[in-house]
Amino acid sequence: MTEDQEEISAGGIIQTPKGVHDILPVDHEYHTFIKKVVRHRLRQAGFRRISTPIFEFTELFQRGIGADTDIVSKEMYTFQDKKGRSLTLKPESTAGVCRAYIQNGMANLPQPVQLYYIEPHFRYDRPQKGRYRQFCHFGFEIIGESDAALDSQTIYLANLINKDLGIADLFTIQLNSIGTPQSRKEYAKVLTDFYFDKERSLCEQCKARLKTNPMRLLDCKEESCGILAQIAPKMADYLDEESKVFHADLKEYLDELGIKYVENPNLVRGLDYYTKTVFEFWDSAEGAQNAIGGGGRYDGLVELLGGGPTPAVGYAAGIERIIANMKREKIRVPHKDVIHIFVAQLGKEAKKKCLSLIADLREAGVKTMGALGKDSIKTHLRLADKFGAPYTIIMGLTEVREKVGIIRDMKVGTQKTVPYEKIVPEVIKLIGKENLDKYSAGELLYG
RNA sequence: GUGGCCGUAGCUCAGUUGGCAGAGCAUCUCGCUGUGGCCGAGAGGGUCGAGGGUUCAAGCCCCUCCGGCCACCCCA
After folding, report:
1. What kind of fold does domain A3-180+240-328 have according to CATH?
2. N or C terminus of chain A with fewer C-beta within 10 Å?
3. Complex ipTM value
């Protein structure tokens, strides 16, 4: 097969590349609903929305996420622009949000700065259900203040959103503290020393991890590695005093909020920038470690990216995974993609009359469809039925001549003739004022 | 990146030891020229994921690739 053909699998028909897909109208019902919940809950809590660019300089992610992490070392979509600069499609948003915080001088805003985002992200990974090369994350960040109460708020909000989505009970909150960078460095050294003469018993991957990120050895699933992890020195014993107090405070606040969590001393997280608090929402099913969301504190990131010392905490979750879970639980979401009325017409004069009638109905907030390209009453009624319209307006030459219209109740099959100018008010009465789709963007302000 | 299962119409799937590519649903048309659903008749829609090989003959056997799913890895 030639290179050209590799990306095109079916005789000239171009398909989507591996791991990406269309979001069709039925899936947008979920996306829209989830975004609505996220926006609502975060707006209530004083967060404001931010969008960072889809691509950034590669260095942002290398520095921010960590060059040795899986994300950076093997999962990024990196390319060069025409001037040879290395750019990367964003694999996550926290680094970009911190860059934006610095670049836009947000340190001069009242602290902490609370931001949220709903954005597409990209990772070159082997696809599976709920795991795609382009995926949508929502997330939020509290930047500029350090207090365990903020961490508790972050976890609370994440859990609250899950509750609104009907999936909170499916997930267990895994919680850990990985300490300050200093204490982590010390602990990493202790671990490295512990494993020094045991390297032969480790799996190939762990041998490599030992040099890059020794804490990763703790959650390896290989049997021999697992046994060693059991007797390895514990992070908790090497936590600095500050982190210990911070973690104890956080647990106190979570208890106060009535949030259940599981302490997981082996929870590490794949991104380098975390400090102290780390947490993930894990599938409660036995043995499952699939996460729909995770986050933690990253007090060093802003400084690492060239800003001043700025503590921060945040959370992010995958929308496709949330949808997969909602579907598995047979949770359906309300949506407004239903029409109120179908306008059926016969003959050119009627069609002309219907054009303004359709416009008037829509202006009044009645969701209206017509089949302007077809010319048979039978076809029109059949379409009205297929679209599930509760009412159909029928206009023919007779009605145009008599300046009336027929309103047909599709469920009962009865119909009545009303004067043309009474059609809109009559329809509104039938649909119910409260069900109208009135669009208002709010008053514009000038000057 | 490693291993396994899978790929036939828009959807769900039959297709026998290799022998003319099928069904149900959906779509469109007609029966019914201005009245939907039900019913009946008909039509369109496929290079059987792609390419190559074996064979008189391949949806079926062999190889490669593409794609989906699952387990790793990792994460959201």
Report:
1. BirA Bifunctional Protein; domain 2 (3.30.930)
2. C
3. 0.87
